[in-house]
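With this grant's support, we have paired protein sequences with backbone structure tokens. One protein thus recorded is set out beneath this paragraph:

_____
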Amino acid sequence: MPLKFELCPGRMIGGDHPCFVIAEIGQNHQGDIEIAKKMIKMAKDCGADCAKFQKSELQYKFNKRALERPYKTKNSWGETYGDHKRHLEFSHEQFRELQKYAKEVGIFFTASGMDEMALEFLHEINVPFFKVGSGDTNNFPYLENAAKKGRPMVVSSGMQSIQVMRQAYKTVKAHNQNFVFLQCTSTYPLDPVDVHLKVIPEFQKEFPDIPIGYSGHEPGICISVSAVALGAKVVERHVTLDKTWRGSDHAGSLEPAELAEMINSIRMVEKALGCGLKKRLPCEEPFHRKLGKSVVAKVKIPKGSVLNAQMLAVKVAEPMGVGAEDIFQLLGKVVNEDIDEDESIIPRVVDGL
């Protein structure tokens, strides 16, 4: 059984606990704090457990030339990539305001720290867990630093190989027992052929002592719901208020109605998973009494006869007799009274049953 632990105060994950759903707002707020607040409220109203953002200290995430690179696309918010990112980046004060608002709404709040200094800030404001974006999963000094801080961690695996994930596991595990790996493919939107949900059970075998989850960027909800059926204990999906808005993440994001439907479907699948023990259930008893089959006499069977296969048939019978599954146990047994043709074989009329 995968490890269980408290990801957020009062909220366990792993084992039989409900899937933890992260609404990834990211930078789909368009740099507008009021839109960000609407998205936090939307995530709560749709049933998500956590509203998540992204935090960068741009001079630590990018080098100077990367920030000065011209960025003139349909998604751009500035002439250079630095101008674009600065438009979308909330200040420390704004992050604290959003954190306070999330608390008022009643939803957990965290962010991906996209560089070392952003990680320090998130630690300072006491987020419940660190989200490690795919771009930092092979950044082993960053992983080690995050793990040493003692907060639970959710680590995405986009763009990484199994060799990198093994090293990431060792790096985090040396300092922190409470973390999750998410199967993820880093492209927006994500073609279903590139999802590879089969990685989830492979991760479960490779890392049996941590929960495994899924971070998706595909259109629709069925793949994310299927991930839960395969055992995902955390599901993260980008969310938006309008897929037509400027920005590359919107196309792979869920609008409010989709997010709500996905979460409802996840909860339904969790109920449907049930337990692994196959047995006849109480809800099946009326159907079984009505149409369940049992053993009847194919011919008239005199008292003292030794039963053989030619004497027996299986039918829906009144009253119900020996269950059809036990027909072979009757062979060679002696009947202790006459049984008419087409009558049920009742256990009390067969010696040794």
In short: The mean pLDDT is 96. The longest strand covers residues 20-26. DSSP finds 13 helices and twelve strands in the chain. The first helix runs from residue 33 to 46.
